[in-house]
Amino acid sequence: MIKREEVYKIGIFNKPHGIHGELSFTFTDDVFDRVECDYLICLLDGIFVPFFVEEYRFRSDSTALIKLEKVDTAEKARMFVNTEVYFPVKYAEESPKEELTWDYFVGFQVIDKRHGKIGIVIEVDDSTINTLFVLDREGEELLIPAQEEFILKMDHKKRQITVDLPDGLLALDDAESVD
To answer: Which of 90, 93, 100, 166 is the most exposed place for a label (fewest CB within 10 A)?
Structure first.
């Protein structure tokens, strides 16, 4: 069974294209084109399900047409409309680190040098010039800057980011650290 921490979201299937089962795919990360992995993972009814990719071709820098194995008709392809598409973290780690997208960091635990564990990245807000990690901290949402100058270390295997945030950015007591 595929677990949430083993994958990260790279896009969504939109609508069928043609009559032979191709799907329009809007992606935020083209990792599927950069590393050797012959499947994508779809979130279906709350379960992560792998599907082998028969072929794909790019339509633009953010869309592709994808043909999944055993999806041979427009009717079968319609079952995937608005389905979230994920990629296995273990293969993404093979990609050069400078090519990773922000979505890769969803699920990473953030640890501050002084405050300890402060939360899990649940989303990345890159809608403004200052990219932010959106953390889940004991059910509360916490925003911290996703800037290289604050990042001390990244452990891709443990999925942890160690940061040194400026004084006053976190109004936390050391006793409140998430365990």
So the answer is: 166
Tokens, residue 46: 């709350």
| C-alpha to C-alpha distance for 146 and 178, rounded to whole angstroms | 20
Please check the confidence at residue 97 and state whether its pLDDT lies above 70.
no
Pairwise CA distance, residues 58 & 81, whole Å: 18
152 within 8 A of 160, measured Cβ to Cβ: no
The tens digit of pLDDT for each residue in 25-65 reads 999 888 898 888 999 999 999 999 999 999 999 999 899 99
Torsion sign, CA atoms 119, 8, 15, 65:
positive
Domains (ranges, CATH) in the chain? 4-97 (2.40.30.60), 106-176 (2.30.30.240)
